[in-house]
Design a protein that fits this description.
Chains A, B: It is an enzyme of class 1 (oxidoreductase). Two copies of one chain form a homodimer. The first copy, chain A, is of the alpha/beta class and 355 residues long. The first copy, chain A, is built from 15 helices and twelve strands. In chain A, a hairpin with a 2-residue loop joins strand 9 and strand 10. Strand 12 of chain A pairs antiparallel with strand 12 of chain B, so a sheet runs across the interface.
Chain lengths: 355, 355
């Protein structure tokens, strides 16, 4: 039986779902000859680590408790079970992880949304650990930092950073997919955005999605995977709101009440124009040669992207093998469940690197 | 630098394309820290093996020669370069492979279309080797033989057996995809099949495709991957010609000239009926629970399968994560180039199992 020691950073929706998957898939994994031993779990405030990381683990009851506590919005420190683990406050917690890495090769899972995790990931990899990322931020840092992460390319996996559950490193943004296909049916932009927010499709501040930054991050990661040495600054990003309505210039409430509706007419006009050409508007990321652009494009109604409805994602890949007709991959985009399933697949795929 | 020793069985289109990929991707692979060392190449008649399999290899000039000779329709034995390798006639060649496996862990690549390779694959795996299959036949044997192949599940890969270049273990049949979408445009079935044959989409005898056996093989492999313990006999297969026109009852020429055209009216009638329901006909494989059916289905024009044109393949996956909208993967189906690329990806993915 392969034994993969796991340390999780981040107990948000994806992290919790991953813990639940790990617990509920024990039999399935055992049948495949693998056992995931959860040695530590961290949130932004602290880290809980099994007393003896080399042989002990956080048991399934305790992991289930963690999920419950975190989903109630409480910090990890709320857990009380002193026999089982030690707690280390941040940032000492990060030093503790490095310390464990000197004695044990583990898989470090980053399900946080922090840009601070890159250092501990780098150290862990250099000490012989593996890393699985659902967090995009470490991968959209400078090219130099990026190169360091991939110094042992087999030890780092990040399928979920751009594809959620899709079996590719690629995808668009759920919010923008939903917004673009809904406005097409004649609904005002502002109302569609508010509906998307109501459905939980957007970040708490929908401008985080409407700015195109999330798509741009995925684009950058993809472009780098294709071998292009570029930074965020080389990507042309079209925001769906003007700078003067940005988070630094306008409070969220003001944006929702006054800013958004003032954008309706412009979007309606663009849709009308596209429609008169038999086209539809889609928010897309195009990577071609060493160029990466993110923004609204007019596309034929009948293309894979044009046919896209609701919050589905689609990726079209043109390559030497797929020259005329692209390889198309399409399915539900984000979602904690699919993302966590992608993370879990990445972890299992590391098994040959463990004794 | 990882060193993966490789032995290839089968020098047809896919095998030759694989050798060409290996030779032309040397720099790319070196940049990723991997080197593929081709130790032996077999066709149905014989096997050429480097004199000292532990350290020598068939060099790139020689591999290119092999491709040229085989693409001229000549047997491997035609190669003359006695300093470099030893030749073993079949079946001694298979014993030679087992002999090498006792001393060297290599990746055994099956690009043949033979049902005889399963024994040497089983032996190689039990001796510590890995196997990559583009050949479907070893995977559609009895459940007992299938289980033996997967006794070391990480050591066997076969992405290309059902998906050609598509990044999934799944696909339809190129010929049938082409045929079904062309007849829809009003062309007679018999003419479309002949056109497909002319385009090189079909097997030399198009009945090999029209029988549905190729799709059924893929269906069986997929169903087994999903955990269903079934055999070919449990699959309901709809052939596009009646038994009395089968290869044992009617010569190929007779089938093309007289058999095929007699089928036109029936197909035309079925298309008309489907069309009156707003549907189209597609040749599909449906796996649901432990049932696997292969044949013509009436499907909505607007579904992913219904929209399929030409020789593209499409796979729809419904699962817990993809409940309402399926995960859809679509792209060119077969083709030596994409299949060989899939085989190569499988080989590279074995690298962690090599020292």
């Amino acid at each position: 039986m392969k034994n993969i020691p796991v340390i999780l950073m981040g107990c948000g929706g994806v992290g919790r779902q991953l813990l639940q998957h790990i617990v509920s898939c024990r039999t399935l994994h055992a049948n495949k000859g693998v056992r995931l031993r959860v040695v530590g779990v961290c949130d932004s405030k602290s880290c809980l680590v099994a007393r003896d990381a080399l042989s002990m683990e956080l048991n399934d009851t305790f992991l289930t408790d963690i999920c419950r506590i975190k989903s109630d919005g409480l910090p990890l420190q709320t857990c009380i079970d002193p026999g089982n683990y030690e707690a280390f406050p941040y940032p000492e917690s990060m030093r503790k992880l490095t310390d464990i890495a000197t004695r044990l090769a583990f898989a470090l899972i980053d399900c946080s949304a922090s840009s601070e995790t890159i250092e501990v990931i780098n150290q862990a990899i250099s000490l012989g650990c593996c890393a699985v990322l659902a967090n995009k931020k470490p991968l959209t840092c400078s090219m130099e930092e990026f190169d360091k992460l991939f110094i042992q390319p087999r030890r780092i996996r990040h399928e979920s950073t751009v594809g959620a559950g899709l079996p590719v490193i690629a995808s668009l943004n759920r919010t923008l997919g939903y917004v673009m296909s809904e406005v097409e049916d004649g609904k005002p932009f502002s109302e569609v955005v508010k509906a998307a927010k109501g459905l939980g499709y957007t970040e708490p501040d929908p401008r985080d999605d409407l700015s195109g930054m999330d798509v741009a991050r995925k684009g950058l990661i993809l472009a780098r995977l294709l071998g292009h040495r570029m930074d965020m600054s080389s990507i042309k990003i079209e925001s769906l709101y003007p700078d003067k309505m940005g988070p630094n210039a306008m409070p969220l409430e003001d944006f929702l009440v006054n800013g958004l509706p003032s954008l309706d007419d412009d979007i309606k006009e663009r849709i009308k124009k596209a429609s008169s050409n038999g086209n539809v508007l889609r928010y897309v990321c195009v990577i071609e040669n060493s160029r990466c652009n993110v923004g609204i494009q007019e596309l034929p109604k009948e293309s894979a992207l044009g046919r896209l409805r609701g919050s589905d994602n689609v990726v079209e890949i043109y390559s030497r093998c797929y020259k005329e007709q692209p390889l198309v991959i399409q399915g539900a985009g984000a979602g904690n469940d699919t993302t966590a399933a992608g993370v879990l697949a990445d972890i299992l795929d590391l098994q040959d690197l463990f004794p």
